[in-house]
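Tokens in:
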């Protein structure tokens, strides 16, 4: 095809894979370079120590509002690998279960009424206060870029129990950051797009096959069949910039690979090292938030729900593996804790003991079960910390260097650091590269349409 239509994508995470997909769809010659031996980036898997197959290092989920991610999965033939959970299960401090199921036949945002009514751990007054808080957040037109979600919730008089038992677990899980650090704009994005916008927006999309297979095998295989060249175990040491100031390829172990454009789709710290003075520096404004996954293997199955939000506890979410999916070993489950700084003073055994005790409180089958094995995995920079003001430093796809583009869930996608944000960033970088090369750009995937009531309340798409 020639160097004039060759594009190199640096990084084989979800952003890089999405960029490669969009570039290949534009008829370009795409080479994807990944330093690791496997693809998927932070969406990685490891071998079950008990011989049950692959286990995801940390449970990843998407929502119904994640239209770009869903579109990629549909076109790549991966839709069968995602389970849709319409019911969100909450387990309150007293152990009572709440099955919260938005209804399809009511227009948004009225479809959430059953969800609010179903939260049995709240009094009637607290449910009313929660509804008012969600509506007030949606009605905000001007967002103070210095205000945190916690400060705003306190300022409007949200009850302490409602903050602690709804806002905190929901927003921290969705955004991966502590409520007292989350910017108000990011919180509004979750509530409006993830709950209020559409009756299907809050659907939980859970992978039923390990991410290592989903991304590293099935998605990678689909890209290869479309002509994308994938090279793993290939570390890019530098991006070549020609005498005319235009990006013209990469350098790996001294070998140069020419290209007409380069997309760098790596985490922000790696991007800053690879592109000093071009990618933003990793500092306090552009920093990460940790997520911890506690993997537990009991001698029997203990979880009788597909998932549950454990309200008012150290544990935040617990997931049971799908029968077709992660870890075929009996008795496996995973607990995920976002914004996990300083959990139990860093004492992993104490953390495991705490989580197991909480599971035994709320799942009767766990009380007589024996814990066979455990593993704690913490990613200290799992997601970009969406603190107040972070959007001012998140870079656009196009850089100051012609022919050089950035992708990653940390870039300016308008979304938090999620799988949807990663896919959107890859498509944005591909779109900018196509414009640079003078070829047709990828079509935009539309958001879920907002009902007339939601448009009246929150406006059109932000």
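Residues out:
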């Amino acid at each position: 095809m020639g160097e004039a239509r060759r594009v190199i994508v640096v990084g084989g995470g979800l952003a890089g894979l999405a960029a490669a997909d969009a570039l290949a769809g534009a008829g370009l010659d795409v080479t994807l370079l990944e330093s690791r031996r496997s693809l998927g980036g932070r969406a990685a898997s490891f071998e079950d120590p008990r011989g049950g197959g692959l286990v995801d290092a940390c449970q990843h989920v998407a929502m119904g509002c994640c239209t770009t991610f869903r579109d990629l999965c549909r076109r790549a033939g991966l839709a069968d690998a995602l389970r849709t959970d319409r019911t969100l299960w909450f387990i309150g401090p007293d152990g009572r279960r709440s099955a919260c199921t938005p209804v399809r036949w009511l227009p948004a945002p009225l479809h959430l009424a059953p969800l609010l009514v179903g939260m049995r751990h709240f009094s009637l007054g607290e449910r009313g206060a929660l509804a008012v808080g969600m509506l007030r957040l949606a009605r905000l037109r001007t967002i103070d870029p210095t205000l945190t979600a916690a400060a705003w919730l306190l300022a409007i008089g949200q009850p302490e129990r409602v903050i602690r038992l709804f806002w905190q677990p929901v927003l921290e899980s969705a955004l991966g950051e502590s409520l007292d650090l989350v910017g108000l704009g990011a919180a509004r994005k979750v509530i409006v797009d993830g709950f209020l916008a559409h009756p299907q927006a809050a659907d939980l999309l859970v992978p039923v096959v390990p991410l290592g297979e989903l991304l590293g095998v099935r998605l990678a295989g689909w890209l290869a069949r479309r002509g994308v060249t994938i090279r793993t175990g290939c570390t890019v040491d530098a991006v070549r910039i020609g005498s005319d100031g235009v990006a013209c390829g990469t350098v790996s172990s001294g070998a140069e690979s020419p290209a007409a454009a380069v997309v760098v789709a790596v985490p922000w710290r790696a991007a800053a090292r690879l592109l000093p003075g071009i990618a933003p520096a990793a500092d306090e404004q552009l920093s990460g938030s940790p997520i911890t996954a506690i993997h537990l293997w009991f001698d029997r199955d203990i979880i009788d729900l597909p998932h549950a939000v454990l309200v008012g506890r150290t544990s935040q979410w617990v997931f049971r593996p799908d029968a077709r999916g992660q870890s075929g070993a009996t008795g496996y489950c995973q607990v995920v804790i976002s914004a996990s700084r300083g959990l139990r003073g860093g004492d992993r055994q104490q953390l495991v003991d705490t989580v197991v005790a909480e599971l035994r409180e709320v799942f009767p089958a766990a009380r007589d079960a024996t814990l066979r094995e455990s593993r704690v995995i913490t990613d200290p920079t799992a997601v970009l910390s969406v603190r107040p003001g972070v959007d001012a430093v998140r870079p656009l796809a196009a850089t100051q260097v012609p022919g050089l583009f950035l992708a990653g869930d940390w870039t300016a996608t308008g979304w938090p650091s999620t799988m949807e944000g990663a896919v959107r960033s890859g498509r944005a970088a591909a779109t900018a590269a196509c414009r640079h090369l003078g070829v047709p750009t990828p079509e935009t995937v539309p958001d879920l349409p907002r009902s007339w009531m939601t448009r009246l309340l929150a406006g059109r798409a932000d």
